[in-house]
Amino acid sequence: MNFAGQTVIVIGGTSGINRGIAEAFAASGAKLAVASRSQEKVDDTVAALKAAGAQDAIGAAFDVRDPDAVAAGLKQFHDAYGDFDVLVSGAAGNFPALASEMSVNAFKTVIDIDLMGTIHVMKGAYPFLKRPGASIINISAPQSYLPYEGQAHVCAAKAGVDQITRTLSMEWGVEGIRVNSVVPGFIEGTEGAKRLAPTPDAGEALRRDVPLGRWGQPQDVANACLFLSSDLASYISGTVLAVDGALYQRGSGKFGQMMGEMLRSMKKG
Q1: CA 24 to CA 54: how far, in whole Å?
Q2: CA dist 112 → 94, 96, 105, 200, 258 (Å)
Q3: Which side of the chain, N or C, has fewer Cβ within a 10 Å radius?
């Protein structure tokens, strides 16, 4: 898992799971470039990546909903580092809402960030990918294959993300480019975890739902990304890999039902 001298791009890499991924590649000696909408977060993350052991680290602030800004930002990274060895696309948006109560614009917002943002990143990066040998990882979600009440927008967007992964693994595979998705489970310390489990009791209840008996850590997801980007995974492409302690083998389960009941209760109130 030595990425010394390799160029790794992490879109959305200034917070949560994506920052953990960037830090893991930094610790392995890679050159890092990160992007998000906040210049302040970009600056903070770049400094942290250098402290974590990155050969070098740079960043840019842009919105994945803007294809021209994405293309310009990725060109900036290529001008600095050359061809990309690894590209992680992880920008995402989410909020709970019943479809009947959700505005069209609210639905479109998640589609624009998660789905359109993914294709903007893929197309913007395409000219700069190392051939052969580049590894692309899209950070997906269980909503891509499990229906959740209150998540119609996310389910639609993430299903599209995984189909982009599968399709590009074929279209770009002939050029030696591998494309995979990673689906995180309940990851401790993230904004998503705070929304899912705002109290210690809620956190304990969710932990009991995980067959392996613990919350995931950002490093667990990062380890999967390191593996998928290494020579050990040189024949793995078009795969959607769950890193979830076997949680999603149980479907959306109690959590999916709980979200629907919560939203209907709010509607009545």
Answers
A1: 9
A2: 11, 17, 10, 34, 27
A3: C
Q: Can you count the helices (H) and strands (E) in the chain?
A: 10, 7
Task: State how far the Cα of 140 lies from the Cα of 180, in Å rounded to an integer.
Answer: 10
The confidence score (pLDDT) of residue 251 equals 85
Lowest mean pLDDT among 70-74, 232-236, 259-263: 259-263
Is 217 a member of any domain? yes
The answer to the question of residue 82 being in a domain is yes
Helix (H) / strand (E) element for 60: namely: strand 56-61
Contacts of 171 (CB under 8 A, 6+ apart): none
Cβ atoms < 10 Å from Cβ of 29:
15
Say if residue 147 is preceded by a cis peptide, omega within 30 of 0: no
Pairwise CA distance, residues 53 & 216, whole Å: 24
Domain-located, residue 2: no
pTM to 2 decimal places: 0.94
b/e 33-72 (16+ beta carbons within 10 angstroms → b): bbbbbeeebbeebbebbeebebbebbbbbbbbbebebbbe
Q: Give the span between the Cα atoms of 123 and 109, in whole angstroms.
A: 20
Domain count, the chain: 1
Name the residue range of residue 184's domain.
Answer: 7-268
Query: pLDDT, tens digit, for every residue of 136-150?
Result: 999 999 999 999 899
In sequence order, the β-bridge partners of residue 182 are 139, 241
Please tell me the distance from the alpha carbon of residue 205 to that of residue 184, in angstroms, as a whole number.
Answer: 18
Residue-wise DSSP of 13-50: TTSHHHHHHHHHHHHTT-EEEEEES-HHHHHHHHHHHH
Q: What is the pLDDT of residues 41-81, one digit of tens each?
A: 999 999 999 999 999 999 999 999 999 999 999 999 999 99
Query: Is the Cβ–Cβ distance between 167 and 269 less than 8 Å?
Result: no
